[in-house]
Structures are given as structure tokens and as C-alpha cells.
Design brief:
Length: 200
């Protein structure tokens, strides 16, 4: 695990305090995943010249809300006056899209780039900046992942970040379609933007 301190005062916590805060909020298994995502995000941030601190913070917080109950998310959607269409979704979508508002409120974190990367880390969007892409891809390729497509995804991510977003999105979509689950509009938007014209 990497050891460094935050220098930029982006959040009102030291890196050690953030690690403890996240560790207390999620299971051991998920914390291990989160540390893996941080490591992958830092490597991608170095490769693609993104703020390492922002990549670290976004990665450490991206699944912070994953273990909240459906009732807590439904209440948050009402409390934060979010689009009621969000109520049609589930934890897979809520932990990022609603989690972003919970993190802002509860942890007093207001960096809009970090919050945006967390918000769309599951679905992507057609307007992803480098930090958004780094988190989206790091979540998919972190060292703990072992599904068949992951080796190809890691190779692609080392040379072309947009191609890695495209590969991940098409693989995720194929997986979701095989499961007959609803596809979020932002997932389709990501596909149309990154994949539709790149497939050869
Ligand atoms: O939270 P993680 O498991 O680390 O990863 P994630 O946030 O990228 O994805 C969480 C789950 O959400 C994963 O099982 C795939 C699923 N997912 C991604 N896009 C969509 C989706 N589920 C639905 N129903 N619709 C989507 O568009
Ligand atoms: Fe997630
Ligand atoms: Fe994750």
C-alpha cells in the first residue's frame, strides 16, 4: 500500500483519517477493493497526468455508501430533493449518484471534481474529464478483480484511457444485457459516446 500525506487541503481530513473513516463504513472485503482502486487510480493518474491527490480521494470514497440500506438511499433522495426518477433504480446506481450527496453532506467534502467522479463512477457519461475516466477505469481493473476481460482491460488502460473506458463500457453492457437488467441512460450515453464509433 502506498504511504503519503495530502498536501492540497482538498478535504478536511488527513489521508490517515480518510482511510479510518472509510474502513469503519464498509466490510473488510470492500475496503480491500477500495485500496486496490486507490492504487490503480494513482497509477493511472501518474500515467495520464491527473492530480494524484484527487485520484486518491475519489478512489477511497467511491464506494463509501455501497453498504447503506435501500431505505437510507430513498430517504436521501427525498432529503436532498434529488430527481424522483432515481427512486426507480437500486443500490448499483444509488451508491454513486446519491452517495455523492451523502459524502458531500456528512464528510464536508465539496471538491466538485472529486464529487463528480464519484457520482458517475458506475455509469460513466458522455462528458467525462480525466479524473472521471481514471476512477471509472481503476474501479474495473484494480488488482483484486479477476473476471476474464480484466487482463485485456489492464493492457488497454496502460496505453489509451479512452479505449479503456470504451472496452469497460461494452463489456459491462454485454454483462448487464445477459442479466436482463435495466440499463441506466448514462450507461447508454457512455456507450454511444465512447464505443459506438470506436468498434472495429
Ligand atoms: O461498486 P462496484 O461493484 O465496485 O462497481 P460499480 O460501481 O462500477 O458497479 C456496481 C454494479 O452496477 C455492477 O454490478 C454493475 C452495475 N451496473 C453498471 N451500470 C449499470 C449497472 N446496473 C444496472 N442495472 N444498470 C446500469 O446501467
Ligand atoms: Fe461502485
Ligand atoms: Fe468499486
Amino acid at each position: 500500500m502506498c504511504e503519503f500525506d495530502y498536501q492540497l487541503n482538498l478535504i478536511p481530513l488527513t489521508r490517515q483519517e480518510l482511510l479510518s473513516t472509510v474502513c469503519e463504513k464498509v466490510s473488510k472485503k470492500r475496503f480491500k477493493h477500495i485500496l486496490g482502486v486507490e492504487q490503480a487510480a494513482i497509477e493511472l493518474a501518474k500515467r495520464y497526468e491527473v492530480s494524484i491527490e484527487k485520484a486518491s480521494i475519489a478512489a477511497l470514497l467511491h464506494d463509501y455508501c455501497k453498504e447503506l440500506s435501500d431505505e437510507q438511499f430513498r430517504q436521501a433522495i427525498v432529503d436532498y430533493r434529488l430527481d424522483s426518477e432515481l427512486l426507480d433504480w437500486n443500490n448499483n446506481i444509488w451508491h454513486g449518484m446519491v452517495g455523492r450527496f451523502i459524502i458531500e453532506d456528512v464528510l464536508d467534502i465539496h471538491d466538485v471534481e472529486i464529487l463528480h467522479a464519484i457520482e458517475i463512477h458506475t455509469t460513466g457519461s458522455n462528458q467525462m474529464n480525466l479524473l472521471d475516466k481514471v476512477l471509472y477505469v481503476a474501479d474495473y481493473i484494480e488488482a483484486g478483480r479477476s473476471f476474464p476481460a480484466v487482463e485485456a482491460a489492464r493492457l488497454i488502460a496502460a496505453s489509451n484511457l479512452d479505449a479503456a473506458v470504451a472496452y469497460e463500457t461494452s463489456q459491462t453492457l454485454l454483462h448487464l444485457i445477459r442479466q436482463n437488467v435495466p440499463i441506466h441512460p448514462l450507461t447508454l450515453q457512455t456507450y454511444n459516446h465512447f464505443c459506438a464509433n470506436m468498434l472495429v
